[in-house]
Amino acid sequence: MNTFYKKNGPLISTYFIIAIVFWLVFLIIIPQLYMLDLSFRPNLPPLLRGGPDDVHTLVHYKHFIFGSETSQDNYNYVDIGVFFNTIITAIFVTIINLCFCYPIAFYMAKVANPKSARLLIVSLIIPFWINELLRSFALRILFAGEGVINNVLIGSGLIDSAINFIALDIALYTGLTYAYILLMIFPLYNAIESLDTNQLEAAKDLGSSTLRTHWRIVIPHAKAGIASGCTMVFMLTAGALATPVVLSSPNTYWFTQLIYQWFNMNDNWSRGSAYSILLLSVSVVFVLLMMRLFKVKIGEIIR
Amino acid sequence: MSADVELQNISVTFGNFYAAKNVSVKIREGEFFSFLGPSGCGKTTLLRAISGFLNPSEGKVLISGQDMAGIGPNKRPTSLIFQNLALFPLMSVSENIVFSLEVRGVGKLERQKRAEELLELIALSGQGDKKVHELSGGQRQRVAIARALAIEPEVLLLDEPLSALDLKLRQKMRTELRAIQKRVGITFIYITHDQGEALTMSDRVAVMNEGELEQVGLCDDVYDYPHTPFVATFVGENNAFYGKVTSVQNDLVNVESSGINFFAKAGKKDENSNHSFSSGDDVILFIRPESIFIKNDNNKLDNTFTAKVNTIEFEGNLKNIYLKMNSDMSLKFSVPNAVDTSELSNNTDVELTFSSQKAIVLPKGALAVD
């Protein structure tokens, strides 16, 4: 602390500390704690809040598992189904994203000359100047029944009738994969770039095939970057709202859409909070699993 | 098994720049061969061409007579030791050493056996489970050698692997490298800018400058009979006296430099013939610091001259004495530490002498810049 003050001077140091504490306490910790508390309270009209009925209860979590009391089913199959569908799809999207981004990141870091690497980075970034909602709508236009992709495929004679990309959720998966591509590429790029190129040549000189060099040298070196990219992409995908709203098929629900409904349309903030806490918990578990799987520490991920 | 390596008219260009220019040399089977030259002279380029990381723009690389064009580094019978060693930091020492066997699908038991053999060769038995960062600089060096030897290459290529070590360790590793080469009996091709390294370890050296081979020969030949002014000044130290030829008798050339007449041998042009000179030619006479003596009754050689002492530098085993002959010529000579130099105070004139047999005359040309 002392050295921090000495290094930055009193003014800047104080500013940093106030800004960070404000950010953590007021923008993250307090709202989340409030939501956590809210998730254990019944949904009451404003007048009754703080009254004798405002007690801690598991009713919202019970609702997630068992459904409403009037329902005929033993379990809340719809919500649980949406929840697991969201998590599993997010995991797949993360894996696809990793497979898609790893070659690009490796190419930028080790193969391309600096000039074309810069060009590639710029052309990856520029599309993200357009906001997420517009990008999703643009994809919807591409994937529509009479959209560009169908027209090209039919025009070239590859298919006879239009493919319903939206109903098959192909549009959704593409959109979700594309939405957070940068958050995968840059951690990978940073990690791979720091690998000594001589190691690649040494492996090759010792007779290693390209695949094995990646498996034994590049991937172990880049694992912190891989873990970091995967956790970010997973969290953001599982928590995405705009892309699923625009691109999902009518019978596919994303868990965030349920949360949104409880908060905004059903005006049940308590239940919305409970559902949010569930999503958050799974995301945290996923991060911990990734860290365990790749044997990395939290400090390495941030680096 | 060992192999010979032949470079046939190798040129490597980057745009208009020649990194290597028409290099031809034949490296014999089982030889310790060094490419010696200043940084940027193209020696690493040649090594990369031999190892297969770079395709020469022109010419051929032949290993055991077989053209290597189109054969990748992982398919050549060569192994390369990198300047920074490029050991794999996330693998143990043993895993590093037998990585080449792992990629060839050799079973675990056999890999272990081979790792132990190689660890013994480099005197690191029982340290195979350590991580690379737990080893000292010299140990890492030896691990890199073992890793390169694991596939039993026919040619081992070394890219200045000792340059990161401190002086003592470097000297020790020279002896060790030489001993390992004798033991395994394969061809070593060594790249260095350090002439001490090249001369102590090699059977033959090739001196390079600006992408071209200046001279290829046995170490003592290169030192005693440099073919060009560059070699004369890059390998070891040399005093250069610029002058003009006044007369030539047999192999002895009479050179006039700053009003003094010197006699010296005509330098060699190549292995078989000497340079021939005629009166009026612009030449440089080279005489090494250790071949100049203070003239006295015991030491009277066929060249004598006078110079003024400028500074005396103490170098441990030697004393270096810098002198000025006139405004634009200075020279250096060395005497063993035991020699009494108390009479040589600054600005005193001293009479010096050297043998014409130790001096060499070469046509005027570029010196190695320090």
Describe it for me?
The complex is a heterodimer of chains A (303) and B (370). The model of chain A has no long low-confidence stretch (mean pLDDT 87). The radius of gyration of chain A is 24 Å and the shape is globular. Chain A has a single domain (74-302), classed as Orthogonal Bundle (MetI-like fold), CATH 1.10.3720. In chain A, 73% of the residues lie in helices and 0% in strands. With 303 residues, chain A is mainly alpha-helical. With 370 residues, chain B is of the alpha+beta class. Chain B has two domains: 5-224, Rossmann fold (3-Layer(aba) Sandwich), CATH 3.40.50; 237-363, OB fold (Dihydrolipoamide Acetyltransferase, E2P) (Beta Barrel), CATH 2.40.50.140. Chain B is 22% helix and 36% strand. A six-stranded mixed sheet of chain B has the order 6-7-8-3-9-10, with helices on both faces. A five-stranded mixed β-barrel of chain B has the order 11-12-13-20-14. A five-stranded antiparallel sheet of chain B has the order 15-19-16-17-18, with no helix packed on it. In chain B, a hairpin with a 2-residue loop joins strand 17 (318-326) and strand 18. The longest helix of chain B has 18 residues, at 167-184. Chain B is elongated. Chain B starts with a strand and ends in a 7-residue tail after the last strand. The mean pLDDT of chain B is 89. The chains are: A mainly alpha (303), B alpha+beta (370). The interface between A and B is medium-sized, with 17 and 26 residues.
